[in-house]
Amino acid sequence: MIGGVLLIIFLIVMRFNDPAPDLPTEITLPGGARAISFTQGPDWYAVVTDNDEILIFDRVTGQLEKTISVQ
């Protein structure tokens, strides 16, 4: 039982030592839209706007790749 508790503590400590994901320092949204939500993948990031759109950006270039309208 003591070993199990020590293992859980070890796993928690190791999880908190993982580096934080790289976030873009600045995102320019088209048309004066306001960001509501942000998510990211390995080579892209997405912003949900108050205009009911999802904007997908390339992580390397920062260029807008795709716009998806939410109905």
Number of strands: 4
Q: In CATH's first tier, which class applies?
A: Mainly Beta
Helix content: 10-25%
From the alpha-carbon coordinates, what is the Rg to the nearest angstrom?
Answer: 18 Å
Give keywords.
71 residues, alpha+beta, Thrombin, subunit H, four-stranded antiparallel sheet, 1 helix, elongated
Question: Can you offer a commentary on this structure?
Answer:
With 71 residues, the chain is an alpha+beta fold. It has one helix at residues 2-16; strands at 35-40, 44-49, 53-58, 64-69. A four-stranded antiparallel beta sheet has the order 1-2-3-4, with no helix packed on it. The model has no long low-confidence stretch (mean pLDDT 88).
Concise account of the structure shown:
The protein is built from one helix and four strands. The protein is an alpha+beta fold and 71 residues long.
Secondary structure layout:
Elements: H1 2-16, E1 35-40, E2 44-49, E3 53-58, E4 64-69
Antiparallel strand pairs: 1-2, 2-3, 3-4
